[in-house]
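Late entry, iron/sulfur cluster complex.
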Amino acid sequence: MTQTEKLHLLHQLYQYRALGFDYIKHERKLAPPKVVSDDSLQTLSKTLASCQLCALAKCRKKVVFGEGNPNATLMFIGEGPGASEDEAGRPFMGRAGQLLTKIIENVLHVSRNDVYIANIVKCRPPKNRVPLPEEVDACKPFLLQQIARVNPRIIVALGSTSYHHLTGEFDSKITQVRGQVMDFGDAKLVPTYHPSFLLRNPSAKKEVYLDMLKVKSLL
Ligand code: SF4
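Prediction complete; structure with ligand written out below:
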């Protein structure tokens, strides 16, 4: 490991410690707190409201922390906020968000309010570009803390950016892994296509429908 890599790792470990992790056995093996309360998520949300840890802070309007049932069984994780979400400070608010809501309510038959929705990064990347690795490195500890506090049984990774950064499996394509049920700590992770992709490629809705039936069978 080079000196730069060591310093980067040390920086990440300090971030994890600042967020309350006592130890990390493996990135995909979290030790979620036993007691989960909305207060703890709210505290984290307040901490993040003025976050300046990466360059995305300069161009965002609002930090999009995430929302939903703090004790949700099911959690959806997308890539990052777009323009509508940046304006509203809420995740999945635009056309892709409307489609996600339809998928949750019409296929899974649960209310959007009963699931938890977050993103890999909490501030909008300029022109909706894919978040840079250093931006994800800075923001991901917050997401891991969020997952630990919600402690869902099932996580749906929406799109390749979410899948890659959650699992670290950068060599696998979303087309190959979508619909598979994977271990993610104590939870199950199911990758599928991002709703924005479905808006551009409506024919892929059939695959997402099948993936959601699999998710439904796990609920
Ligand atoms: S993207 Fe995450 S790490 Fe970067 S400024 Fe926003 S909240 Fe902070």
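Residues 52-218 form a domain with the Uracil-DNA Glycosylase, subunit E fold (CATH 3.40.470.10). Will revisit in the morning.
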